[in-house]
Amino acid sequence: MSQLPAANRMQTGGSSGPEANGAFVGPVILTALAAWRARMGVLTAAVVVLALANAPTQLAQWDASQRMEQASARSEARGDRSPDPEDAIRDLEAIGPACCNLCGATLLGFFLVLPLTAGATVLGARTVRGNARFADMTCGFRRYVPTLGAALVTLLIGGGAAMAVGLINSMALIGSASRAISGIVTPGVLLVIGALIMSITLWLTARLWFAIVRVADPERPRIGGMASVTLSWQWTDGTVQMGMVGVVLVAMAVAIAALLPGWLAWSTATSGMGSAKSYGIAIAVVLMSIGGWFAGTFALALFGAAYERVAKIREPIAPPVHESITQQSGGMVG
Questions:
Q1: CA 46 to CA 311: how far, in whole Å?
Q2: How many CA atoms lie within 13 A of 82 on its CB side?
Q3: N or C: which end of the chain has fewer CB within 10 A?
Q4: Alpha carbon distance 37, 16 (integer Å)
Q5: Helix, strand, coil % (nearest 5) of the chain?
């Protein structure tokens, strides 16, 4: 395992940090907006590549959903009657390929999409520095094994926490069916458990986000996957973690606001008839595409600005190429 960089080891225990410079979320947003305007083209290219890379996974999920719905409809039509051999074969022909496609899409997502995502996060950070290039999308492949290691550890930590809370939720649901404790496990309690799941997921995302970008960052020393996760945890210690939670919430709010018009248009269009339905669906697709473009490009700049605001103190490198991007908000001046 690679050791943490010396600069980081010296500063993680110190009192200086991004929180010492005042507010965190506000300067990050201003820096992100400046970088987004200055590097809109390369951010757009990154989002398009990620969308295309994710397309097989989305198609596999959609196909599996359709096949499962068909099998479920046939099962409901049979009622209590056992399926005959032809029905059983038909169900297997529907479910088998769906499972294989999902497995293949999952492997593709891990070995291809995750390194591309790491490269996109580096591109977002270098957008803030002022020296972003489309070739930054390959940064995750240049440090392929450490990047996959960081992604795997992050997924295991996040997935393990989600499974633990999900187990508690399942036990609560089972308990709610019991008369003995149905008065204790009320809908309000289940709502609290659901909020707990969301809170833990949000907090872990805020604490571990820097791992995937730091491990692929070509302008800083090479570190291993586990070391990058440890470093991300250290960098987001103290009040920085609440700032990062705020950044994640801002990204979520922007995504919802950007995609909401398209969702509403789609919901309205699907209830229509004839040419009006086709026209409405076309408008909805355009609105969702625009919303997805804005949400994706801004998120890359936003998380890149957050990373740079912390990394410039924890592990400083040479000044950015275009100071005008960062000096507009003071996000990296220090």
A1: 22
A2: 2
A3: N
A4: 30
A5: 80, 0, 20
The string over 70-81, giving b where at least 16 C-beta atoms fall within 10 Å of a residue's C-beta and e elsewhere, is ebeeeeeeeeee
Name every residue whose Cβ is closer than 8 Å to that of residue 130 and which is 6 or more positions away in sequence.
Answer: 38, 320, 321, 322, 323, 324, 325, 326
Distance of CA 175 to the CA centre of its chain: 33
Amino acid identity, position 70: Q
What's the DSSP call for residue 115?
A: H
Structure pTM?
A: 0.81
pLDDT tens per residue across span 284-302: 999 999 999 999 999 999 9
Phi, psi for 307 (deg, rounded to 5)? -60, -45
23 phi and psi angles, rounded to 5 deg: -60, 155
CA dist., res. 305 & res. 326, Å (int): 9
CB within 8 Å of 220: residues ≥ 6 apart: 5, 214, 311, 315, 317
- Side chain identity at residue 270, one-letter code: T
Please name which of 165, 156, 302 lies closest in space to residue 229, comparing C-alpha atoms.
Answer: 156
pLDDT in tens, 190-201: 677 778 878 888
Cα separation, 202 vs 111, whole angstroms:
24
- How far is Cα 86 from Cα 151, in angstroms, rounded to an integer? 43
Complete DSSP assignment for 247-259: HHHHHHHHHHHHH
Please give the distance of CA 258 from its chain centroid, rounded to a whole number: 16
Q: Which residue's structure tokens are 């440890």?
A: 230
Instruction: Return all residues near 56 (Cβ < 8 A) that are at least 6 apart.
Output: 105, 108
